[in-house]
Specification:
With 445 residues, this protein is mainly α. The chain has helices at residues 2-9, 12-31, 41-49, 56-63, 79-94, 96-102, 106-137, 155-182, 187-212, 218-240, 276-285, 287-294, 299-307, 313-334, 337-346, 358-393, 401-424, and strands at residues 242-249, 252-254, 257-259, 262-269, 349-350. The chain has 17 helices and 5 strands. The two termini are 23 Å apart.
Amino acid sequence: MANPLANIGKVPELKKRLLFTLAMLAVYRIGVFVTVPGVDRQVMADYLNSSAGAGLLGMFNMFSGGALENISIFALGIMPYISASIILQLLTVVVPAVERLNKEGDIGRRKINQYTRYGTVVLSLIQGIAMATWLESLNSQTLGGGASVVTMGGLGFKALCVLSLTTGTVFIMWLGEQITAKGIGNGISLVIYAGIVAGLPQALSQTFALFSQGQIGIAVLIFIGAVVVGVIAVIVFFERAQRRIPVQYAKRVVGKQVMQRQSSFLPLKVNTAGVIPPIFASSILMFPATLANFLPDSPVIVNLVNGIVPGRTLYNVIYVALIIFFCYFYTAVTFNPVDVADNLKKSGGFIPGVRAGKKTAEYIDRVLSRITFAGSLYVAAVCVLPGFLQLEFNVPFYFGGTALLIVVGVAMDTAQQIESHLITRSYEGFAGAGGPRVRGRRAMA
């Protein structure tokens, strides 16, 4: 790795972007330990470590990077922003005005991003009120005679808590946008990635503690390690998998020279949506818990929250359905077969045996639908199947498929962006001259 590190150091812009990204992530991790005024985070940590704090709370704590356990100003995490993004992307499909705005290029996208920010603030206020109400409900009576989470109640605490949580979410959103603009990788994904990775040492410590106490045998420990390695290998394989559609270009006359027919291909990724579907699906599954704080006496909401516990049948069915839906939805939003077919026609390219124009768009759409179905099944399997082992052997959420998919996927995306910067400036990439290239999720398979 000497050459790769040396190559990175030789590109001032890349070095500056990497340092900026690390600095922003460091600020985020520091903020995780800034507690909301008027609460006792030790009581909250004990509650989350108990069986009562498992399920959706444990998953929420994982996505927030441990901020919920500390009752941090970042306790809401980036989920309000993700929820707002889901709403805006759905509106681009069902509302013609938003769809036209989305097709206006950079100006339209900036407008949609602005609406997403406004939506984030609104959702943060709603979820902040719900969390403040929920924290006040964790008193000595509900905790079985222990100390209450909130040390100062009343309207003043609620106002201060909502303001702190909303400000924290907006600040995380700003950090993510700054990383995307001035750093390396997708800022929002890296924030989630940093939160999950930060909890891995503690998860490993808990697992080995179970082993030392005799609750997990050596064979089970080896088996869990083998499953984790196997899942990572499957993720890497499928994230690099492509369906290549052959494309040919007609002969062209340039001056007195006749350019020979050229052959190329159109790469269609098996998983075009990347890590977005499980993140979106997890965000939606956490929403009923927010409603439960406003409607604690509603039997429908209570039964729904009790039913959608990670590992249970209802949770898995809804989770798989949402993942498949968002795989198709996000692919449809980001990839337009009609535009691709028009660009091929304008450049003189065609798919052998397929008429240019509408027929080409239909062919690409048909192929994309088939491979997206396979990709959605892969994402659903990776996110759900390891969860059975996780519950069976009582290992932390960090070894579940969702966490591994996000960590590996974001790492591959970021590695590919770093390599693209190196290649652009005539460097050989991570492996140096003559060595094998490190391929990201969008690299050729």
